[in-house]
Amino acid sequence: MLSAWKKLFHTGLIVVAVMVFIVSWQGVRAESLEEIEKQMADLQNQMELSMKATTPLESEVTKLKQQLAGIQAQIKASETKLQTLESGIKERDDKIKSQYVILAAKVRDLYKKNSQNSPFLIFASSSSAAELTRGLAYKSAANDEDKDLIVNITKDIMKLEEDKKKIQNDKSRLAGLQTKMDTQKAFFEKEIAGAKKWQSELSSKIAVLSAKQQSILAEKTGTFQTTVGDVPLADDPASRPDYNPGFSPAFAMFSFGAPHFKGMSQYGAYGRAKSGQSYETILRAYYGNGIEIKDHNPDAQIKVDGYGSFSLEDYAKRIYEMPGSWGDNGGMEALKSQAIAARSYALARTNNGASSICATEACQVFKASPKGGKWEEAVNATRGKVVYVGGAPFSTWYASTSGGYQESYSGNGYSTPGFWDTPSGQSGWTAQAYEKTAGSPWFYKAWYKSRSGDACGRSHPWLNSEEMADILNAWKVLFSGGGDSNRVTPESSCWGGSPYSKSDLRDIGGFSSVTGASVTYANNGVTANVTFQTNKGSTTISGADFMKAFNLRAPGRISLKSGLFNIERK
After folding, report:
1. pTM, 2 dp
2. Is residue 232 pLDDT above 90, yes or no?
3. Which of 75, 163, 446, 564 has its CA 20 to 30 A from that of 157?
4. Which residues lie across from 513 on neighbouring strands?
5. Is the previous residue joined to 259 through a cis bond, with omega within 30 degrees of 0?
6. What is the pLDDT of residue 336?
7. d(Cα 193, Cα 187) in Å, to the nearest integer?
8. Where are the domains of the chain?
9. Which helix (H) or strand (E) holds 42?
10. Distance (Å, rounded) from C-alpha 103 to C-alpha 151?
């Protein structure tokens, strides 16, 4: 019964893994604010579900308490009955003791009579047949009386022993019922207490996300000043796997791509164009075969915040989202794909011009002067062309680099595909990804600076053995308790607050050194698990949990930008 109640409880509650805040670093649009809002809505929904699940559970506890009260009354009645039986057993036991003396005497007397008064002696001593008959009859009656008394006393003794055994069995059964009843009651009360604590934690986590929402808004407006099309991505030698940090063992986390991983990869489109794919093939690869590429009114008006209104074509000519130089290096079809995606996104974002669109990476980068060159050629070559789904322009998301896997997203009741962006699927991922062949410096990178160049005192992203163990201790506090999770923040003056020291975390988690690390990947484009060799033996952590712990505790600006990552060791 207890197992069934556990299944009921765990079916009713939903386990929530609260996602850690990650500042968006994608080179096109920062959708993280919308994602955070979605997380907040999801958390609120989970808390409501928890409350709904807890309410019937509390009702079940009330019913259980009533049932337990009834069972308890029955147990008490049974105990009273047993006490009465035990009292009777004692009286019978005392009586049996005296009967046992009689029994022994009767058995002894019967034996004597049978051995001394044989039928032959009675016959020899009788003077007549009548006297012989009376003698034999008397002897038989006396013997029968003694035998009956012996049998009855023996039955009483056997019944007494049987009743004693039954009483002991009943007492054991009642004790078992009482234990089971107490266990079920304790289980429900514990689970309800846990559910209410979980609801309280959810409330606090929602509050934390709300604060992070303000933080990400400030971060986005403060650092998102450039795009792929405006300034090429810098390739920092210290962020590459061949960098020598000067100590060993050394560990660095390498992200495949940077947010947001949805829609069209700009570097992926460039790689596809260089491999001979047309703009239509490129768009269908990233947005799926359910799209239509249709002609739209090129004179439709687009209102841009701070700039006024422009025709759809004049607006597209002022978009700075892809380097025009790509058109001179085999990437003309990628520029055409970008031009169509830019029109589609603007129309979907403004509801066909009914509202305005921002001019920054929060939407797509717009400047007052036309970009010209190969970009304008691509705009003119695709004049008026727009991606449609369900009779309306589709919100064509895109980003600089996705790391080789494109995530699905939905719009207009339609979902884009999720897939490995390589010629041969996952098997050719790290070597053949279109982004890699296109030369994206963000395809495989260890991040330790903000885009403004602030490294918070770090000259590279590599961690030593003690720093790596510190991340594991942070993970221990975050996911196993034993400390204050709010103090799991970078041990750096750049971030402020009251973070744990390494020794404080080591006292809680117990990890003091890491000597090795390996990862496994899932089919859906994320790192599934990370396994470390430590002073405590082998420790395996889910990729999502490790990413949260790492981004909350890694020193300086060191961070993971993607759920698809690897760990390099030197």
Report:
1. 0.64
2. no
3. 75
4. none
5. no
6. 98
7. 10
8. 2-222, 231-256+444-569, 264-437
9. helix 32-116
10. 9
Asked if residues 284 and 291 have their Cβ atoms less than 8 Å apart, the reply is yes
Taking the C-alpha atoms of residue 193 and residue 186, their distance in angstroms, rounded to an integer, is 10
Q: Three-class SS string for 261-326?
A: CECEEHHHHHHHHHCCCCHHHHHHHHHCCCCEEEECCCCCEEEECCCEEEEHHHHHHCECCCCHHH
pLDDT band for position 29 (cuts 50, 70, 90): very low
DSSP 8-state symbol, 150: H
The two tokens of residue 413 are 């009741």
Residue 346 and residue 315 in contact, taking contact as beta carbons nearer than 8 Å = yes
**Hey, what long-range contacts does 168-173 have (CB within 8 A, 24 or more apart)?**
170/78, 170/82, 171/82
Q: Which helix (H) or strand (E) holds 452?
A: none
- Judged on CB neighbours under 10 Å (0-12, 13-18, 19+), 418 is middle
Query: Which sign does the torsion angle of CA 68, 74, 76, 78 carry?
Result: negative
Whole-angstrom distance, CA of residue 492 vs CA of residue 238: 20
Q: Give 39-54 pLDDT, tens digit per residue.
A: 555 655 655 666 666 6
Angstrom distance (rounded) from CA 418 to CA 263? 9
* Mean pLDDT computed over 440-453: 88
Of the ranges 41-45, 65-69, 88-92, which one carries the lowest mean pLDDT score? 41-45
Residue 97 phi, psi dihedral angles, 5° rounding:
-60, -45
pLDDT at residue number 515? 97
- For 447, the 3-state DSSP assignment is strand
What sections of 117-223 are H helices per DSSP?
Answer: 119-125, 129-223
Residue 325 contacts residue 374 (beta carbons within 8 Å): yes
Q: Are 228 and 266 in contact (CB under 8 A)?
A: yes
441-24-259 Cα angle (round to 5): 55
Whether residue 315 contacts residue 366, with contact meaning beta carbons closer than 8 Å, is answered with yes
Tokens of 232: 């090429």
The structure tokens 């031009």 sit at: 339
pLDDT value at residue 489: 85
User: In this model, does residue 1 exceed pLDDT 50?
Assistant: no
Nearest-10 Cα torsion for 420, 425, 431, 435: -30
Token pair 């890699």 in the structure block, residue: 436
Residue 448 has pLDDT above 80, yes or no: yes
- Tell me the average pLDDT across 235-239: 87
Residue type at 159? K
Rg (the chain; Cα; Å): 42
Q: Is the pLDDT of residue 224 over 90?
A: no
Q: How confident is the model at residue 317 (pLDDT cuts 50, 70, 90)?
A: very high
One CATH from 1.20.950, 3.30.1380, 1.10.287, 3.30.420 for 2-222: 1.10.287
Centre a 10 Å sphere on the Cβ of residue 137 and count the other Cβ atoms it contains.
10
